Structures are given as structure tokens and as C-alpha cells.
Amino acid sequence: xxxxxxxxxxxxxxxxxxxxxxxxxxxxxxxxxxxxxxxxxxxxxxxxxxxxxxxxxxxxxxxxxxxxxxxxxxxxxxxxxxxxxxxxxxxxxxxxxxxxxxxxxxxxxxxxxxxxxxxxxxxxxxxxxxxxxxxxxxxxxxxxxxxxxxxxxxxxxxxxxxxxxxxxxxxxxxxxxxxxxxxxxxxxxxxxxxxxxxxxxxxxxxxxxxxxxxxxxxxxxxxxxxxxxxxxxxxxxxxxxxxxxxxxxxxxxxxxxxxxxxxxxxxxxxxxxxxxxxxxxxxxxxxxxxxxxxxxxxxxxxxxxxxxxxxxxxxxxx
Length: 318
Fold this sequence. Notes:
13 helices, 8-stranded mixed β-sheet
């Protein structure tokens, strides 16, 4: 029996240690430097030591900072950028691992893909623009960053607009899976695993909309464009390794800034009930649920999205 057990254990060791190194990881094909994928109104600049892709519109106060969700980019704000710029200054940027922002694979100090680092990057943006405080508009995982920023630096946050925020069940990898993928042989396979987003990402995008027939070829192309950027797979894997449970679900009562929680009534990514719960736990928060809408109201129902913001802002500055 002990001999059989020893053979089985030896086989598992070989399976876990040797086999992953035998799986080839072909290089990505047809990728280019991010600058080659930029729009005519795109801009690039170095903030907090990283080269960001961003768009800056409007002028004056207030300043809106738009924070996109996982798998998205500043492209997801395209319908509301110009209307919001009529109310003040609007900054939208691609977070590291997404869009056309730099994707470092080596760094000194803090991991640039981790939540604390992304909060510090936001602070650096406000300092760069010489903005003392801003209205943070965060969709999904972008809402996570907005909330963390408001908890750490409430004096820099004029208000929060949380759009289907990923606060509860934030998509973190279970601890036992996280331990396994940190094991060097499996960590090596990570970029190969995340490449599946190139094929199944379309279905994920459809599930984010109440009515996926509204997703035009142009919208699909906008979401797929970052998959042409160099090292997108390796950077997304680094992001996955370091991000998990955000620990914010028990801290919402600590928020002290005016807050609007805005959600679609048919959110299949972050269930609408979670947005309702978040609004109930944030002191003084206002809740707006948009009918016949999914996870990205700013894209699927931009007029309703803007109307909700308009009412909230009127009350804010009254």
C-alpha cells in the first residue's frame, strides 16, 4: 500500500512540476505598440512613473474622473465623455493592464496592478492636474477603486458615482486556486490561460448588456482593440494574480462623501441586488435603478445615465 501511495504521490509531483513546463506558450501574433492603436483624440502621458493612455475634455470645475471596469477601457465612456465635458473637466484613462496604457512586466517597489497602487495612481493624476478634489465615476471594478480612494483620501473626493460597483463577491480567485497559480509551473501558464478572453470575451460583453443586439460591430471592435497591444496577455495575468477580495464590503458605512449608486435592473455581471445593498449601507447614498439596462448604463442607456447624474449634481451643488 505504501509503495502504491509513493508512486501516486510521485506521479502527482511530476504532473504539477514537470508537465506545465512541457506545454508550449507561443508568442502573441499581430500585436503592436499601444500608440499605434490610439484614436485621433487620444493622449499619452507619464503619471506616477507609468505611461497612461487618456482623454481630457472640458475645463473648469467640477472635475470628473471616469474609472472603467475589468476587461474594459476608457472606450466604455465614449457616449458620456462629451456631455459631461459641458459641465466641467473630464478625465478618463486606461488603468494598467487594460486599454492602451503601459503594461510593465517588471517593476521596483509596489505592484502597479494592485488595488493600493491604482489608488495612488489616481492621487497622482489629481496632483498632475492640480485638482484638489474630484467627482469619481466608477463602473464595476472602477467603483472599487473609487470607494477605496474615498476611504483613504476623503478630502480629495467631492462625490462618488458608483455604477454597478463590484463591492461584494468582487470576482476574487478562491484562496486555494490562488495558492496553486502562484506555484511557478502554473504561474508560467497564466498568459496562455487569459488568452481565452480573446474568444470568450464576446459572450462576456453580451452578458453585460440587457439588449446585446445594441452591440454594433464598432462597439465590438472598440473592446477588442486592446487585444492587439503588446503583452496584453502577460499584463492581464499579473493583474489577476494580485487582485482578489477587496475587503470593502464591511467598510461602506465609513464613507463620508455624497454618493450616487446607479445600476441597471438587469445586471448579470454584478447583480442589481448588490447595488441596492451598497446604497443601503453607504450613509446618505442615493440609488437610481435604470429599467431595461445591464451592467454598463453609460453605454446602453447613456441618456438615462446622464439624467441621473444631472439630478444628483443639482442636489450636490445646491
